[in-house]
């Protein structure tokens, strides 16, 4: 089959990059993983590649793009971005950054409720590939789908990406909620109010409302806010147990993107005058300005309002 002849390069040797590489290998594709620590020549690796999957954390996106720009990337190569974060200087999403750097290349966003450890165990999961270039998304769908990994198509790359990015802030809040043992009512209220906050920001930044009700929005919100496997959830949970942020980060394996996303999102919200009450309390908590208990109190004592406005 044509798809089986495709060569894939995964950039980023963290757990998500390795997981995506394994999914492609299960489909008998030729996959190489490049990370800044391997010392291998990236130019030689991508010379005959058909697809580049970027699975670096947000702080690696600009350096990775700059490195590829020096290699004169062939415009037939499909670029896939799997990062969930906001670039701190420009406040842009990875989709914007990749699109600006390589406007001639087909660009696909991959995002969904995808806790890497579960996928590595072969447990069933679903994800979304979204692109303005439908052919590229369809190819990715074929390359990565398998018995335990179901890939859906979407034509809203920005909304797909923003769902996965913004829910990380809510996962921190959810970890706090569970760490403080606030109960099921509180957790349900938090997650239900988190979704309109995500939609308010996500649609303002260009995503379609419908996308946020799908796998990459509500789906990923539920996965990350309910699982101790989520690093973002762990940040909130450990803060609620009384650890300081540096203490939490010293123990954390891998990247909790929600910490940076909260800070960037606060700047976006201030600039665009967006109402983001949950993000605001997470921000103050991460800055060490308030305790987890005060964050809850502040959310509960806000002015009373209509549910939908
Ligand atoms: N772990 C998971 O379950 C999932 C993670 N993601 C997203 O994928 C991205 C990567 O996540 P993980 O692999 O879990 O994180 P990780 O912390 O395990 O790996 C991060 C990777 O980014 C690279 N990197 C960091 N800074 C860099 C720089 N300045 N230059 C070049 N490379 C750099 C690191 O070398 C490493 O390969 C994050 O945005 C995360 O939100 C998305 C879906 C699932
Ligand atoms: O995005 C994820 C699951 O979809 C991974 O969550 P964490 O980055 O919080 O571990």
Describe the structure.
The protein has a 7-stranded mixed beta sheet, sandwiched between helices. The protein has helices at 15-26, 42-46, 58-69, 94-101, 116-120, 134-144, 157-179, 184-204, 215-226, 231-240, 245-251, 257-272, 277-286, 292-300, and strands at residues 7-11, 30-34, 51-54, 78-81, 107-111, 125-130, 149-154. The protein contains 14 helices and 7 strands. Helix content is 52%, strand content 11%. The N and C termini lie far apart (52 Å). It has 2 domains: 5-154, NAD(P)-binding Rossmann-like Domain (Rossmann fold, 3-Layer(aba) Sandwich), CATH 3.40.50; 156-299, N-(1-d-carboxylethyl)-l-norvaline Dehydrogenase, domain 2 (Orthogonal Bundle). With 309 residues, it is of the alpha/beta class. Helix 7 runs parallel beside helix 10, helix 7 (157-179) packs across helix 12 (257-272) and helix 13 runs antiparallel to helix 14 (292-300). Helix 1 (15-26) links the parallel strand 1 (7-11) and strand 2. The structure holds 1,4-dihydronicotinamide adenine dinucleotide and 1,3-dihydroxyacetonephosphate (13P). Belongs to the NAD-dependent glycerol-3-phosphate dehydrogenase family.
